[in-house]
Amino acid sequence: MTIIAETFRDLSERNEAALIAYVTAGDPSPNCTPRIVDALVEGGADIIELGIPFSDPIADGPTIQAATVRALKAGTKPPLVLEIVEKIKEKHRIPIVLLTYYNIIYRSGLENFLKLAERNGVDGIVIPDLPLEEADTYKRIADETEIDTIFLAAPSTTAERLRNILRYTSGFLYLVSLFGVTGVRRRLPDPTLRLVREFRSYVKDEIPLAAGFGISTPEQIRKIVAAGADGAIVGSAFVNVIEQNQESLIRTTEKLRKMTRRLKMATLQHRKKTWHRRL
Asked: Which of 27, 46, 60, 123 is catalytic?
């Protein structure tokens, strides 16, 4: 059983959903990221998702694109991100998920990247531009290194394709809850909640379902949890705090800690499930 599976199981037993906190590694500087993660963990985040800065982040909106630019200007490269993961793991036993684009892995060498990632403490990887049809080799090596392969499903994903995705994904299924790119939304549209309920009916108790894109407030988290999500992925709201307070790491971490605490409280109204089929 991987640490991501253990985390969802333990949360389910406590009637909680997972708060998955995303930040871009190296924003505003590589030295800041471990301190930022400290604040997220202290605030109650259950899983940390670190974005590897990439020059063409097709799935990201303006907020995370700006964070990527700051991280790249600060000299953040993939090997340094893995060193950051190792430093975080020395202090926290918390699942670390990387979000990266396939070009970064391909340039590093697939087997080399995954083995190095495993050695540094990476527990799962999300690759938005890796098609299911081309994932066999990646999935095989990732399984050998015991790194969860977390696939995405979108509003346009058909039932047949979703069933295929469920055969490949591990750790959790990442539900892109609306069309478009990442970013804070004032409210969740009704179709998002219907989508969560629809995907819940396919996923059942087979694997945890975590929803992201546009989720940024406690009320939004409560709604997607009530609709059947087992986790909420929050990114742009945290990145906004980093951007607005980048001149003071102390102020940044204080605000992140408080925000995380509020968001985590919204995950506590979760109906109990038992993850037994895919663990």
From this structure: 60
